[in-house]
Amino acid sequence: MAFINKIGKKIGNVAGSAADKAKDLAETTKLNASISSEEKQINQYYLEIGKIMFEHEKDNPNSPVAEQIGKILASQQTIAEIKAKIAEIKTDNDVSVPNTCPNCQTENSGNSKFCPNCGTPFPDQ
Ligand SMILES: [Zn+2]
């Protein structure tokens, strides 16, 4: 009968623990949030370590992180090229917009929308 009693006790525990279960779940959720918060902190420190390592190791070809450093340097190079391209586009636009009156060729010295000489609208800038 000890076996039967044991089962009865188990069922009783399960049935009686509905409220406890909700409480446990809330507690577990809270604890998991704490873990997430700690992990976020760790990732932030990994990032800081990485930046320090990068500065420290970027000229060392035998560095254990040489591969990653190479990828960062390549990305930085790509960014520089893209920025140069953007600057080029901006310069092209500046040149292509005539800054004189299309009617009397008076120069638009300020940001006027109309020619001060003949009143013709200046082209959009
Ligand atoms: Zn004009």
Quick description:
The protein has 125 residues and is mainly α.
Q: Decide which structural class fits the backbone.
A: mainly alpha
Low-confidence stretches at least 5 residues in length (pLDDT < 50)? Answer: none
Query: How many strands, which pairing sense, and closed or not: the largest β-sheet?
Result: none
Portion in helices:
55-70%
Bound molecules: zinc ion
Mean of pLDDT: 85
Shape: elongated
Distance between the termini: 95 Å
Q: What portion of the residues fall into strands of 2 or more residues?
A: under 5%
Rg over CA atoms: 35 Å
Give the count of helical stretches.
Answer: 3
Series of secondary-structure elements, N-terminal to C-terminal = HHH
Strand count: 0
Write a structural description.
It is a single chain. By secondary structure, this protein is an all-alpha fold. The chain has three helices and no strands. Bound molecules: zinc ion.
Keywords:
125 residues; mainly alpha; elongated; binds zinc ion
Secondary-structure blueprint of this entry?
Blueprint: H1 2-16, H2 18-57, H3 66-96
Bound molecules: zinc ion.
